[in-house]
């Protein structure tokens, strides 16, 4: 996938703070240390589009990015605040629940949610709850098994199969470090976003 342009547009503290959707949007969710920023940078083929940090929990709002693909198609990514190990105050972490839930329920341009799961940890309670919530509101989900390069080669396929079985969604193995799985992930994202449709019809009504 050729990404001609990639830009960070803004951060919003709630869905009302985002501009009206002009293009199909995909949201990225996961634990604070799962590698969301690294995955977004890898997909965009940019090193510093999304902020990465050794301190979990740096994404504190709804971060909106816009990618222009070859053929002039445009696609928006929304990086959701992480959960789990975020080193923020308890009050602030609790505020992320309503923020994320409001976005997932109310954002009319949202075409699906990409749930990142560390392949070494597998699916945990929070990921189960999010998948159940997405099914409840009728929102499509895609599961990505991140950090596959951290596992020995002979353990990657069994771990991916276990994640697929636990989530009920075919998990795509991915490594931001090596780029493995990026092409497969892009194909899945384009299908989810219906990116082949004209921009005016690519947004869910």
Describe the protein's architecture and organization.
With 205 residues, the protein is α/β, with parallel strands linked by helices. It has a single domain (3-193), classed as P-loop containing nucleotide triphosphate hydrolases (Rossmann fold, 3-Layer(aba) Sandwich). The chain is 32% helix and 23% strand. It has a 7-stranded mixed β-sheet, sandwiched between helices. Helix 4 links the parallel strand 6 (141-146) and strand 7 (172-173). The longest helix is centred in the middle third of the chain and has 17 residues, at 90-106. It is globular and about 45 Å long. The model is unreliable at 53-58 and 197-205 (pLDDT under 50).
Strand adjacency order, main sheet: 1-3-4-2-5-6-7
Secondary-structure element series: EEHEEHEHEHEH
Number of domains: 1
Instruction: Tell me the structural class.
Output: alpha/beta
CATH-level-2 architecture: 3-Layer(aba) Sandwich
Could you tell me how far the N terminus lies from the C terminus, measured between alpha carbons in angstroms? 27 Å
The fraction of residues assigned to DSSP E strands is: 15-25%
| Number of separate strands | 7
**How many whole angstroms does the radius of gyration measure?**
16 Å
Overall CATH class = Alpha Beta
Helix count from the secondary structure assignment: 5
Can you give the mean pLDDT? 85
* CATH-defined fold name: Rossmann fold
Query: In the CATH hierarchy, what is the superfamily?
Result: P-loop containing nucleotide triphosphate hydrolases
Helical fraction: 25-40%
Cα shape? globular
* Low-pLDDT sequence parts: 53-58, 197-205
